[in-house]
Design a protein that fits this description.
Blueprint lengths: L5 E5 L8 H12 L3 E4 L6 H11 L3 E6 L4 H14 L6 E6 L3 H10 L4 E2 L5 H17 L1
Parallel strand pairs: 1-2, 1-3, 3-4, 4-5
Length: about 140
């Protein structure tokens, strides 16, 4: 029996708006995944610690404050430092299109902005995790 996918949803930094993160968390849960929501105002180190403790397959980062490059890059760095670079990271929030390509180049699998389809988010997260498991 295959283990259910485990996803950590986190809000890095000082951003206090978490409606989008909660909507994505619910969509992933409704699709059969186990979802852990860290709450707001998490440091990259706290996020990675939670991901390792919960043995997750993926981390979803949500940010609206404009600090996405700093926070996403730091989460990826801490994952690498702790030899957990195999954990998939995706993001969402208000992120300018010009920054999306750079975030993907750094290792963020996908960025989901406002209006993204929940079924598309679920599909991409499932497919990307399975690709990593199969490789």
């Amino acid at each position: 029996m295959e283990r259910r996918l485990r996803i950590l949803i986190a809000k890095p930094g000082l951003d206090g708006h978490d409606r989008g993160a909660k909507i994505v968390a619910r969509a992933l849960r409704d699709a059969g995944m186990e979802v852990i929501y860290t709450g707001r105002r998490q440091t990259p180190e706290q996020i990675v610690n939670s991901a390792l403790q919960e043995d997750v397959d993926a981390i979803g980062l949500s940010i609206l404050s404009g600090a996405h490059e700093t926070m996403f890059k730091r989460v990826l760095g801490v994952l690498t430092e702790r030899q957990a670079g195999d954990i998939l990271v995706f993001g969402g929030g208000i992120i300018p299109p010009d920054d999306v390509a750079e975030l993907k180049r750094l290792g963020i699998v996908e960025i989901f902005g406002p209006g993204s389809s929940m079924s598309e988010i679920v599909r991409i997260v499932q497919e990307e995790i399975r690709k990593r498991r199969d490789s």
